[in-house]
Structures
1.
Amino acid sequence: MTTLSEFGIRTNGETDWVNITGQVQKITAASGVSEGICVVFVPHTTAAITVNENADPDVPRDVNFALNCISPDRREFRHGEGNSAAHTKTSLVGPSLTLIVTGGKLLLGTWQGIWFNEYDGPRTRKVHVRVIGE
Ligand code: ZN
């Protein structure tokens, strides 16, 4: 069995971390797949996806701060759109996740959540979810 779904997100601010765990869990539960894999894919070049702590809001804030330190805006950048720092953070974090589905649910650690990362917002974004299994 396999299903393909998508949903939209409106991000706030130039950088933004949006917790999308609930949406992905809901799609997984509705897929009818009990044992399998869930692939979450972000089709953008200045936004990414990651798994990180979902309990303390200072964690996403601090990781975002660290990413901004690793990839600040630089006058040496050539890309005419002026958002090379955002493109760099997107490459560091990545466009997709592969998660385990068991018992009809995503297998995540107690403190883990799925975070959509905006680096060049605010924008309207998309997330694709493929659930495969039996
Ligand atoms: Zn660009």
Note: The two ends are 6 Å apart (CA to CA).
2.
Amino acid sequence: MHRKTRHLVVILGDQLDPDSSALDGFDPAQDAVWMAEVVEESTHVWSHQARIALFLSAMRHFALSLRERGLRVVYRRLDEHPAASLTEALRADLAAIDPQRVIMAEPGDWRVRESLRTAVGAAGLERPDRHFLVSTDEFAAWARGRREFRLEHFYRHFRRKLGVLMDGDEPVGGRWNFDANNRGSFDARGPGLLPQPLRFAPDEITREVVALVRKRFADHPGALATFDWPLTPTQAQQALDDFIAHRLVAFGRYQDAIWTGEPWLYHSRLSAAMNLKLIDPRTVIAAAEDAWRAGRAPIEAVEGFIRQVLGWREYVRGLYWLRMPQYLEDNALAADEPLPGFYWTGDTDMACLHDAIGQTLKFGYAHHIQRLMVTGLFALLLGVRPRALHEWYLAVYVDAVEWVELPNTIGMSQYADDGFMASKPYCASGKYIERMSNACAGCRYDPAKATGKDACPYTTLYWDFLMRHEARFARHPRTALQWRNLSRLDPGQRQAIGAQAQALRDALR
Ligand code: FAD
Ligand code: SF4
């Protein structure tokens, strides 16, 4: 570096926000941005090739845009420096550059935050990440003194505070929650002709990254043949416009539906762009609200969508920072099974899992109900060690960043935090999947059966789960009703289900 640097602004792969607080007061004459591609971020969990390509390509596009704005950028490409980790790379450059201060926005990952704090020491200055609508301090203030946390309370409080979908002090449409209208599934004819989402064909930067990933991470899971994610703020805005114009209208109604071979349905595909901070959630929320105000989408679709972005997305981030690092170790149900190998290949005769995992490997994407009620549910019922499952979710989705993935996995889907996030476990039998999808029609198993050769493994494991956790949940006010179903089983059925569940576990180890 040829001149003395005042501030070195560290920008991480999930902080590609052109208006980042880390850039406040940036003086091109004295300051520089620092970005690095490092192997460890792709290998600490066995990352999907599309996830690696997404981060690297978006980072390169971002660095280019900063240079076009006249900012000095020190950019370390993966294939051009020897450091394996972020801290190693940063330490090497700090020794050479010797800035007065190192500035960054809050990292989205506890592990990264801790190691960067150690590497930078007293020279470091962390600024709140204003991408989020609710700061970590505001969340902590909301949480203080509450005996339990519930999304619904958080969501109403902040919708009111931020004036989203409000009519004075009342929710528009007279209700806060339209979930009851939003549980539709498709009939036997299926979803029909679906509006296909906008694709972003790889440009030269992306093609170069894809070639690099194929070479350096050849043994990593997933494929790159269909890689088409938005990688710049302009593309993220186009993806949002496309969703609002073509898919928002039916988002609510079909948000819980599954149809094999149809990965996108009416979902927005905006999570990766938002998590990399290519687009501001306020822009996303305002676009949805505007569509309702202009009569272009019904309230149940718009409320259902805004509940995800303003509600769940902000809520899980608050919970993450409140509970880390304990969250990583949580295992309230003492689940100890290894993750079945087919999670990495899709090679299973369970049609629902084959479809959800197959599409995950192909695109790095599955929608929420596939994550929660197919892959997550199976692991919950089987009793998979939560940390192993967490490492899988963090690896295989293009939108996976720990602050959002971990509470969803450990909390919502596995109940490993003992109800810190969700009031009860999301447990169900194969009948639920049959109701919400067409998978069972093409499966060799029967979702109605818990025992026998063609019994659905979900249904066997569901009853086994109820039996295994009877003492914990049978008297719990939120779960007693579900557990009361156990009284339908006689001792012989209990014994047969327990034995079949054990055989399944043995076969999957
Ligand atoms: P849409 O269905 O169109 O929803 C709109 C937006 O709402 C999403 O883009 C997302 O930003 C937000 N959203 C929806 N549900 C949630 C939620 N439960 N928590 C936080 N935000 C939500 N989401 C991630 O962004 N990264 C993850 O790593 C991730 N891991 C998950 C792991 C599990 C086990 C589960 C059950 C859910 C996970 N989710 C994660 C939440 C959700 O599944 C994804 O946000 C969603 O599927 C992304 O697709 P989309 O953009 O098409 O979402
Ligand atoms: Fe999945 Fe069971 Fe249905 Fe097969 S029968 S698709 S395993 S829920």
Note: Residues 299-323 form the longest helix (25 residues).
